[in-house]
Amino acid sequence: MILIKSFAQKVLLLGFLFFSYISLNAQEGKQLFQSHCQTCHSLDKNLTGPALRGFLERGPWADKANLYAWIHNPAGFMAKDPYTQGLKQQFGVIMQAFPDLTTQQIDAIADYVATAPPPGGDKTTTTTTGAPAEDNSGRNAIIFGVISIVLAIVALILMQVNNNLKKLSDDKEGILRPEPVPFWRNKVYIALLALVFFIVGGYFVGKGAINLGRQQSYQPDQPIHYSHKVHAGINQINCLYCHGNAWESKHAAIPSLNICMNCHKAITTYEKGPKLYDEEGKEINGTAEIQKLHQYAGYEPGKPWDPSKAKPIEWVKIHNLPDHVFFSHAQHVNAGKVACQTCHGNIQEMDVVSQQAELSMGWCINCHRQTKVNFFNGKDSSGNKFYSIYEKFHNDIASGKMDSVTVKDIGGLECVKCHY
Predict the structure, then answer these.
(1) Is there a single domain that holds both residue 239 and residue 200?
(2) Which helix (H) or strand (E) segment is 276 a member of?
(3) pLDDT tens digits, one per residue of 55-67
(4) What global pTM score does this model have?
């Protein structure tokens, strides 16, 4: 009987831990993919970098040691690997290094990429009609959670059955034993439950406190349905045409009605573009949205436009930083040559804009640790001349002591760089 009890408990405990591990590993992999990979990679199509689905079957990644080395130090790994050298020639950029990712986290990302739903089964994809497809990731997590709870209940029932059988056996043999302590009065059970509650509660309280003020995935309704996919994606309108302030000032700024009306005095109907859908899958009337713009501008098609009749559009701001944080778009976009997609995600594919990055202090610091400075090269006059003042780094690069300089090397981790 004791052997049966021990075996049953071990099997149920292993099953519980297995299903819990699968659920947590899949969720962690998805979160890591979204925070570290999604700005440059898609699962099923090439973006800034190659599509990742099935990547373990390509190149040298079957050996996980190569994968870890590549993610931790792409430049060092590429120097002796022809496959990654070909990737740089194809896409024109080298992958950003992620030395902070552990091997377990990299494995979690690889597991998510291998098990993620195919096109049509994820919320970020669309159906053949163009409407957003159903997201199954939450449903899978619920299924694993239910299975784990059922296994835990079965384990408790079997333990209770085992105790009752042992009591019957002792009674038959005349062995006296004290009355069992009820579950709710058993100090061991109470202590275990309190410990579990403290650990789980502390985890969620700490995670919630850390995320206070962050708005990742924030996607408010706007007064006009403006599709970046149509404007920046299909029509290839440069980001700086509408957000020109990003090139020369702290704020990217919201474009004025003058910018919109440069095109929409002539474009008064939406006829040739793809169908538009909101996040609930409802079709949007593009012509009606252009008419809303005309109402704000005080414009009647076919008549001269009088800008004095215009009233501002009350757009809802999506990306917000704390008041004590200094951030300059010009320093990043102009001097640093940082692409808009690095922080804002694949904006050219979004019908409805949402905040993609967490915009946390750790997220910014990791970027400063990994982003290389666009140093001025006197031989071909390429790069940013501002960085020519760092003579020591230029000499170190020329002598071979350093192969590149990152933002952290020029003070990118100093507190006063970002905080008033």
Answers:
(1) no
(2) strand 276-277
(3) 888 889 888 899 9
(4) 0.56
